[in-house]
Write a structure and sequence with these properties.
The complex is a heterodimer of chains A (452) and B (77). Chain A has 16 helices and eleven strands. Chain A is an alpha/beta fold and 452 residues long. Chain A starts with 7 loop residues before the first helix and ends in a 7-residue tail after the last helix. Chain B has 77 residues and is mainly α. Chain B is elongated, with a radius of gyration of 19 Å. The chains are: A alpha/beta (452), B mainly alpha (77). At the A-B interface, helix 12, helix 13 and helix 14 of A face helix 1, helix 3 and helix 4 of B.
């Protein structure tokens, strides 16, 4: 095993006990990026000089090893999230060269925990575009890595970094993570600070993380999940020890299969998901079938009307001044969203409140819901209409809409050398339980080898 | 646009097309056709689920947190 193959917890443990020096690990990461970036195109910006300075400072601080939970861990951050001293372009040309004067909540938490903020990973424009970004899927470069969090999962899959940070407003973190065969987690709404994230839709914007194992997700989530008074939606919570939860996860979980999503999946995805769930049952998981307590088309309508209303409010003035720089699918989104009456937005929010207890009831008495993460594997980059090339977002909407925590795991590698994946969904603030469940399932599936 | 469960998807689409022509012009409205159809489908779907004046208030941004606080309080009782 080479240094760049190490997972986040392994690498940090090695650096803390002095077996690996932070500079040595960082050099291995930078060499790996140099070797694979021409294939993957995962990065918008890398500050290797500043990263080396940070590694040297950490190495020179005698207290840092014991004090900092993410000591020396290099991290890539989606390019809609501010990192002090680095540009945030959001794939929008007028923002080129704008350097963030202050860290976002997530970047600050990473920095405080001793992580090295290596640079910015590719994001679709404003995390809202369906135009194909430059990033390619490391498993098959004829296929998309998904979006809008596109660089972070591709970079983690390609062993360029052990951890990537992203966001999900509809399906922007778990779907690309599934396409790239890595673990993607969207914690409960409010768990991670949204301060300093360029907004897409305030009520649905979730920062999240991408790793190569569930334990690594737990390992990184702990230091990030803290209250941030600058974010009005930030949770005030006594936090669990996520790693301890994962390490205690020997008991087979109680799962509920969301039949609606299995039925809507493409045949290859449904077959792979059925096989994977059967594997879990053979190993002792209790699996029963459930249906969404409301029609899927109502959930989609609620989500899109709220999303479009908030996104139009975010963009209308900037759009009127800079519309030439908006990509075609974002132009379309803005122009259509501006036409929708405000009463519809409020009506959608009334229905959201009515449905929330039904969703909570669906999750009672089980550890997690289980479903395919996406209706299909990663589409070809030249497939059909532009809006279809990044894949179908709908399988994430029931959970994103209600702020529920979910995590995607690769189950195997299937057709076209592309990963299949399942998602596990828990109740609000049951993040530790979702991690423990996913960790048990991960042991059944095993982890895929490196695609490159 | 008329907001009622009795309105048809075609009527909603025509309303959106008229609004689009006024905002973005005839040519652009034709380019937006697929997106307008998709928006009309979502609007029509939502309108099929009417609510009475005394039914639920709108969800607020932090409802996820509120639900959790209530669950925690109930669990503690």
């Amino acid at each position: 095993m080479q240094l760049f193959d190490l997972g986040a917890a392994e690498a940090v443990d090695g650096m803390k006990i002095g077996v690996i020096r932070p500079q040595e690990y960082l050099d291995a990461i930078l060499s790996r990026i140099e070797a694979t970036e021409p294939i993957v195109n995962a990065w918008e910006y890398i500050d290797s000089d500043e990263a080396r300075r940070s590694a040297e400072e950490l190495d020179a601080d005698p207290q840092a090893r014991s004090r900092l939970p993410l000591f020396g861990l290099p991290v890539g951050v989606k390019d809609v999230i501010h990192v002090r001293g680095q540009p945030t372009r959001a794939d929008f040309e007028p923002y080129r060269g704008r350097v963030a004067a202050e860290d976002s909540g997530v970047a600050q938490a990473l920095r405080d925990a001793g992580a090295i903020l290596l640079g910015k990973t590719v994001a679709a424009q404003f995390a809202w575009s369906q135009d194909q970004p430059k990033t390619r899927n490391p498993w098959n470069t004829d296929h998309t890595a998904g979006a809008s969090t596109t660089g972070s999962p591709a970079a983690v899959a390609a062993r360029q970094i052990p951890v990537g940070i992203g966001t999900q407003t509809t399906s922007s973190l778990l779907r690309p993570s599934a396409y790239c065969g890595v673990v993607g987690m969207k914690p409960t709404y409010g768990r991670l600070s949204s301060y300093g994230v360029i907004p897409t839709s305030w009520s649905s914007d979730h920062p999240g993380l991408v790793t190569r194992s569930v334990r690594d997700a737990a390992f990184v989530l702990g230091p990030l999940a803290r209250h941030d008074p600058r974010d009005p939606h930030s949770a005030v919570e006594s936090l669990e020890d996520f790693v301890a939860e994962v390490d205690q996860g020997d008991v087979a979980p109680k799962l509920a299969r969301v039949v609606d999503l299995f039925d809507l999946a493409s045949t290859p995805v449904r077959d792979a998901a059925d096989r994977a769930v059967a594997q879990l049952a053979q190993h002792g998981a209790e699996v029963r079938d459930v249906h969404l307590p409301m029609p899927m088309e109502l959930l989609l309508a609620i989500h899109w009307i709220i999303h479009n209303g908030e996104s139009a409010a975010i963009h209308y003035e900037q759009y009127s001044q800079e519309h030439d720089h908006y990509l075609p699918t974002v132009r379309t989104n803005v122009e259509v969203s501006e036409l929708l009456p405000a009463a519809l937005y409020v009506h959608a929010r009334r229905w959201k409140r009515r449905l929330r207890p039904m969703m909570a009831e669906l999750l009672s008495g089980i550890d997690a819901l289980v479903a395919p993460t996406s209706s299909d594997t990663a589409p070809r980059i030249d497939a059909g209409r532009a809006s279809h090339r990044l894949g179908d977002p709908s399988f994430q909407i029931p959970w994103t809409c209600f702020g529920l925590p979910n995590i995607t795991l690769p189950t195997d590698v299937g057709m076209n050398h592309l990963p299949n994946a399942l998602q596990f969904i828990g109740g609000a603030f049951a993040d530790a339980r979702v991690l423990r469940t996913a960790s048990w399932c991960e042991k059944v599936f095993g982890s895929p080898a490196s695609p490159l | 646009m008329r907001l009622t469960s009795a309105v048809s998807r075609e009527q909603i689409l025509r309303s959106l097309q008229r609004a689009s022509q006024e905002a973005w012009g005839e040519e652009r409205t034709q380019e937006l056709d697929l997106a307008l159809q998709s928006a009309a489908r979502n609007v029509w779907t939502l309108l099929q689920y009417p609510l009475q004046p005394t039914d639920d208030e709108p969800d607020v941004v932090s409802d996820t947190l509120n639900v959790h606080i209530v669950e925690r309080r109930d669990a503690a009782l």
